[in-house]
Every structure is written in C-alpha cells, then in structure tokens.
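Appendix B, record 7
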Amino acid sequence: MQPEINIKFITDNQELKTKVLGFIDEWNSNKNYITSQTSGSTGKPKTIKLLKKHLKASAQMTGEYFKFKEGQNILLSLSADTIGGKMLIIRALEFKMQLIVSDVVKNPLLNLQEHVAFVSLVPYQLISILIESPEKLYLIDNILLGGAPVSKSLTDKIQNYPMNFYESYGMTETMSHVAIKNLKDSIPNFRALKNISFTTSNDSLIIHAPLLGIEAMETNDQVELISSIEFKWLGRKDFVIISGGKKFHPEILEKKIENQLKDRFFISKAYDEKLGERIVLFIENIYSFERNNEIFELLNNNLEKHEIPKNIYFYFPFEETNSGKINRISTYQKWKNEH
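Structure tokens (predicted):
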C-alpha cells in the first residue's frame, strides 16, 4: 500500500504542479530507485540512481532530528528536479505531513498563510524574505538552508528571530544532508545525523553512512575534523589555491570581504609563472577603471598582504548551476574563452 499525501498548492504554476505530482507517481511506482541530477557546481552534471530504501532512511533521520509529526505542514519551495525538492516530498510522504507547494522564486513565502513545521531554502531566498516579508518567518518553526554556504552577514541577521535556523551539509550522492549546523549555536560546526560518522584523508572529509548505502565516500571538501561526528568546513578541495607555496581556501577569503562588495563575486586562481598559481577575484558587473581602484583599496583594508588578489576580472552574468549556485568553473571558462 502506497503512502497517501495531502497537498495544498499556493501556486498557479501548472508546470510546477505537474512536476510535483509526477515525482510522487515515480516514488509510488514499482521501481526500487529514483533518478536525480547532481548540481554541476564542480563539473558536468550527471544523472544518478538512488535506491528508495536509502532515501527513506535519509527521510527518517531528518524527521527524527526535527521531530516531525503526522499532520504537520511542510513547505516545498525548491524545484522538484533537485534532490532537495525530492527529499522534502519524500519526508512529507513518510511522515504523513501536509505538503504545501509554493512558487520556486526568490521569496516563496508571499502567499503562505498557514503555520509550517519545516522548510528548506537556499540562502538567497532567505535574504529576499528578510527584505520583503520578514513577518512571514514567524509562521515557520524550522528553516534549513542549503545549496550554498551561509554568509556571516546572513547569520548575524537571523540571530534575533525566535524560529530555528540551520545550515545543511550534503550532496545528491548522499541523498540530501548528512550533517547539520545550528546557526544560533556559538560553536559553528557541522554535526552528523544519527548513525553517520566522519573520518578524513589529507584533510578531505570521508562520510560513513551505512544506512544510506555509503561505506566510505571521500568528498572534495576540506575540513577540520573535531570528532567522528563533528567538523568545521574549510572549503572545496578543487578550489584550493597554492600560491608561492602557501595554501589558500577561496571560501575563507570570501568571508573576509563579503560585506564589502555589493555585487556577487568569487575568488579563483590563475596560472602564474613565478607563484605557480595566483589569487584572482571575479565580480559580476561591467568593468570600471574607477571601481577597480576602489575595490583594490577595500581588499587592502580587509585582507592580509599575501591574500590580496593579483587581478580583478569583471564578468556579467555569472554562470549558474541548476540549483542557483554560482558555477565558478563554467564562469571562469567562459571568461577565458572571451579574453
């Protein structure tokens, strides 16, 4: 007997409705797996098969962590094409919750009227909500952010709100999150969900999650391992810059200047004959000589001398992944092909 689901659509988007109902049909089919596409943030997106028994185990872990109860409302504001969207639907099915489906837009709470126990958002959605309709946040108990790192400035803005805010760590291959960070906790580390543990190899995180069919998955994330169930995320291994024999994590440098630049940006690397690699800064805008000088002054005031990018490159618009993240590799390649 297939699980039933109570759905309420607060969107008129027929394509979105069709995708949600289509995934529920796929979940209720006789196949023992579903298909999902990886994000493509560090390479070409690929379609992978995920076993339903592992997806159910992931949903149970999340439900236990957030204490889901039958009949509660759960809000879907992510695309049903992504693993984040698919997993939210699965949680609704597994815990017999009412699924409320909103438009997949910057501010998905505009039409929300009911109290909601749980929602997954990407950071730019929360930023839009805080600007346009912060009062809507009071309808929600638990807000889980994923898809991109949560900035310090955004973390600071949510501290005075009474609802719970969390950041997730995971990927399509792990069927959503395997670790969660409480953004109101004074210790900003990720902690494993139940029955999951971590080790490292050359500072790269290795995930052990037998209930998800994962014995030892080595990731491209470099971390500081605090214990077998806790780590501090440093950045992507593929993005690490080795310049003049020193190692730099772009994500750490970006946090130091995130409040200084109004445009979207990212720090990357370029070949350098003397240094091996040099630090460069990409800004999503049109080139301006005057701004170039102003930005170098900001960099000098906020970074150590050896951390300052050697070049600033302006490019518009940045390439994005299917989940709305900046695609650093694709953006860099397009810029390189055009210059």
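Remarks on this record: Residues 52-66 form the longest helix (15 residues). The chain has two domains: 6-194, 240-338.
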